[in-house]
Amino acid sequence: MLTFHNVCSVPSSFQLTGIPGLESLHIWLSIPFGSMYLVAVVGNVTILAVVRVERSLHQPMYFFLCMLAAVDLVLSTSTIPKLLGIFWFGAGDIGLDACLGQMFLIHCFATVESGIFLAMAFDRYVAICNPLRHRMVLTHTVVGRLGLASLLRGILYIGPLPLMIRLRLPLYKAHVISHSYCEHMAVVALTCGDNRVNNVYGLSIGFLVLILDSVAIAASYVIIFRAVMGLASPEARLKTLGTCASHICAILIFYVPIAVSSLIHRFGHCVPLPVHTLLANFYLLIPPILNPIVYAVRTKQIRERLLQIPRIKTKIR
């Protein structure tokens, strides 16, 4: 590590603290976090396998669900194994480039997930408001392009974050990150020099993704609800709304924890650091855990396919 003026330095690595203030409970915290990560991995891999095997699920909605499952696997796997390593072995050391890479993965794929939710809202809009053109509009090619556009948008938005830190802010006043992963603001807070550009850019991206995407999704559902209310029978209304229920639940599961964590990070200065760190981890874990459960419970084809697995095992025996 190169040191300048005995204050700022160029670190080769950082030290993640895990859950600051709760170090004595790390072993016990590893039990719920490890269990939740296992549930998230099994649930999302199951969704991917079921959609692949069940040809009746080869539809735009379920292709988007597979993209969502893949993104959730990346989000949870980019943070939780390292966190468990800190809990079990005190392995908080992380290289500078690895830290910036983790930062990119977390923020990039959170942005990608938001884009997929936007694409899913468009799918529901076309399916309900213009059902006769649904198959023509949302072909497999279009679905793939929407997924690729979400990925490219995430790379385009988030790519500059680690680059600006690496190129503009090479010096750090400390190398201990009071967090369980390399969150953008936690890393920027340790840098020497003027970090206002990084802060403004981070806030701008947060606004573009969180506010504009959620407004666009809300607008699409306003139009959907107006179309549903125009249906003649209450049964038809309930059936149509039922097709949107899983998507609405998944949207709330994703956006609410992010909004709460962001507000606490920006304005909740009186909130204890352990609470903030736990919330930051939960918003990366809750969607990967609950999304497969929501869609398995609400989607008849997925539910039936999962119920067939014990029967197949019984027949084999």
From TrEMBL:
Q: Which domain of life is it from?
A: Eukaryota
Cross-referenced PROSITE patterns, in alphabetical order? Answer: G_PROTEIN_RECEP_F1_2
| Keywords, comma-separated and alphabetical | G-protein coupled receptor, Membrane, Olfaction, Receptor, Sensory transduction, Transducer, Transmembrane, Transmembrane helix
Q: How does it sit in the membrane?
A: Multi-pass membrane protein
A Pfam family found in this protein is: 7tm_4
In its UniProt record, a GO molecular function of this protein is: olfactory receptor activity
GO CC terms for this protein? plasma membrane
Chain ranges of the G-protein coupled receptors family 1 profile domain: 43-295
Membrane-spanning regions, if any?
27-50, 62-91, 103-122, 142-165, 205-228, 240-258, 278-297
InterPro entries xref list: GPCR_Rhodpsn, GPCR_Rhodpsn_7TM, Olfact_rcpt, OR51/52/56-like
Does Ribosomal protein show up as a keyword for this record? Answer: no
Question: Where is the protein localized?
Answer: Membrane
The role this protein plays is: Odorant receptor.
Q: What is the name of the protein in this document?
A: Olfactory receptor family 52 subfamily M member 1
List the lineage, top down: Eukaryota, Metazoa, Chordata, Craniata, Vertebrata
Chain's gene name: OR52M1
